[in-house]
User: Fold this.
Amino acid sequence: GSDFWKSVHFTDYSQHTQMVMALTLRCPLKLEAALCQRQDWHTLCKDLPNATARESDGWYVLEKVDLHPQLCFKFSFGNSSHVECPHQTGSLTSWNVSMDTQAQQLILHFSSRMHATFSAAWSRPGLGQDTLVPPVYTVSQVWPRPH
Assistant:
């Protein structure tokens, strides 16, 4: 359980659009790893679909992932799991979104330090991403703007 996870050393090698975590284990075990998202630090990390990390010699890699403080690795072994969020400081954050309401409108503010396309749609709470309500709104950030 928790003693096992305390014995694991996690080293983050993420860069650009690739999340990479190297693990040093005292025992030669194969762990499973996937991407999860935290809304805040008091909630569980929600598993994201089709986001299993590729493993090779203790290195876990997730391709085509924008680095963000809410995106984390969830490592599992048997019935035990551990979440590692390497970008909590936001130093590598390449994008962000915030929300505001004005005169019965919901306004999303997107910022990015790289070329990016963002999409947003309504979803019914508790039913998952498969219940998006059209239309899907898309905006492209062509030239990076300072925050």
